[in-house]
Design goal:
154 residues, alpha+beta, seven-stranded mixed beta sheet
Length: 154
């Protein structure tokens, strides 16, 4: 009986007011709607990895970390033989960003070729907000915090 390796991942919930940054794989739409995420490298903190991952996947540098929403484990079977220990961060946009854009990731851990991602924004209260691969684990908490923040400001 083999034990699955545990791989640390950093997941980014990047918000701009009441919207969440998401993307689709241009050439692989079956991969579903996702948020930026990346592997935490050796001697790298998850908070560093999340910022690097956002930049590599989206080209966006103008973000700041609000908080670590939590950590959970996700079994990648049947796609990969690994357990991912996921560090989920809420970040907010700090610079103007288009409503849609395409970015090519050049540093993919799964491909030697650049991978095109089509980015766009969805409302956090959207009923069709369903992230692939278990990435939505802390979304309800983010929606709750966002709704409470809005009501406190109004």
């Amino acid at each position: 009986m083999s034990t699955q390796p545990i791989i640390k991942k950093a997941i980014a919930y990047v918000t701009n007011k009441d919207e969440l940054m998401v993307f689709r794989h241009t050439d692989f739409p079956e991969a579903g709607v996702q948020v930026p995420a990346g592997t935490v490298e050796q001697r790298e903190e998850p908070s560093e990895a999340v910022l690097r991952g956002i930049y590599e996947e989206s080209g966006i540098k103008g973000v700041r970390i609000i908080e670590l929403l939590g950590i959970y484990q996700y079994n990648m079977a049947p796609y990969r033989d690994e357990i991912q220990e996921r560090y989920v961060y809420h970040l907010e946009l700090t610079e103007p960003t288009p409503s849609t854009w395409r970015h090519w990731e050049m540093h993919s851990s799964t491909s030697k070729n650049s991978i095109a991602f089509d980015f766009y924004w969805v409302r956090l209260d959207s009923s069709d907000l369903c992230l692939a691969g278990g990435q939505g684990y802390f979304l309800s908490e983010l929606v709750h915090k966002n709704n409470n923040g809005d009501s406190a400001q109004n």
